[in-house]
Write a structure and sequence with these properties.
Layout: E1 2-6, E2 9-14, H1 25-40, E3 46-51, E4 55-57, H2 68-80, E5 85-89, E6 92-94, H3 96-103, E7 106-109, E8 114-116, H4 130-133, H5 139-148, E9 152-153, H6 154-160, E10 165-166, H7 170-183, H8 186-196, H9 198-219, H10 222-232
Parallel strand pairs: 2-3, 3-5, 4-6, 5-7, 6-8, 7-10
Antiparallel strand pairs: 1-2, 8-9
Helix pairs in contact: 1-2, 2-9
InterPro entries: ClpP/crotonase-like_dom_sf (IPR029045), Enoyl-CoA_hydra/iso (IPR001753), Enoyl-CoA_hydra_C (IPR014748), Enoyl-CoA_Hydratase/Isomerase (IPR051683)
Pfam families: ECH_1
Protein name: Enoyl-CoA hydratase
Length: about 240
């Protein structure tokens, strides 16, 4: 991951192409550190979270997953940052990466982006990521896509509340958003974000420990071992009909 700053906007770029920006322990630690630095920098008015390559985030690093408690802390720190966090997506987002997207205040994407909650096909559940997502998503759509692991596009992601906006040119779509954030006062942004992120922060505080334990238990289960092994072996898991 690398960071840059220009005219009040700190841009944090996920850049781990070897694992499609999966949530490894190192990536989560680097992102938490970069968010803390942005919070402390008085020249930063907002944060843009983006990526290199054709994948924003592939979800958990199945070969070297981060501690679920550290991922929970990352979601909390994103939601509690006193500055808006804007996701800029031009590629695929899967599983835990969708939780990161949900923790952002504004999310914009281009036409080549795609989305899928793949957990049930691995013997898992979208446990921890449900906290930043369920307050934002249309309930029937959340039930469908959480359960079925179907992939969907940017237009559908915007319709169900996962994205704020999408367009053929994501940077053009974000121009008025970033212009508005640059003109806002730091105090005004912090107080307003506290209002708009309240439901997400409440869910993370209320359910964080319970859902982190659920996630860890599922990852340690026999079904998850079969699902993850099947994914690496490029075959269907034993329960697939």
């Amino acid at each position: 991951m690398h960071a840059a700053q220009a005219t009040g906007i700190a841009t944090l770029t996920l850049d781990s192409p070897g694992n499609r920006n999966a949530l490894s322990a190192d990536l989560v630690a680097d992102l938490r550190s970069a968010l803390a630095a942005a919070a402390a920098d008085t020249a930063v008015r907002a944060v843009v979270l983006t990526h290199t390559g054709n994948t924003f985030c592939a979800g958990a690093d199945l070969k070297s997953p981060c501690d679920p408690a550290d991922f929970l802390a990352l979601l909390r720190e994103t939601a509690e940052l006193p500055k808006p966090v804007v996701a800029r997506v031009t590629g695929h987002v899967r599983a835990g990466g969708l939780g990161l997207l949900g923790a952002c205040d504004i999310a914009a994407a281009g036409p080549q982006s795609s989305y899928a909650f793949t957990e049930t096909h691995l013997g898992l559940a979208p446990a921890v990521i449900s906290m930043p997502l369920l307050p934002r998503l249309e309930p029937r759509a959340a039930a469908r896509y959480f359960l079925t692991a179907e992939a969907f596009d940017a237009a559908e992601a915007a319709r169900i509340g996962l994205l704020t906006l999408h367009g053929e040119d994501v940077d053009a779509a974000l121009e008025p958003v970033l212009a508005g954030l640059r003109k806002a006062s730091p105090q005004g942004l912090a107080a307003t974000k506290a209002l708009t992120s309240a439901a997400v922060r409440e869910a993370l505080t209320r359910d964080g420990s319970r859902l982190t334990e659920l996630s860890a238990g599922l990852f340690a289960s026999a079904e998850a071992r079969e699902g993850i092994t099947a994914r690496f072996e490029r075959r269907e898991p034993s329960w697939s009909l």
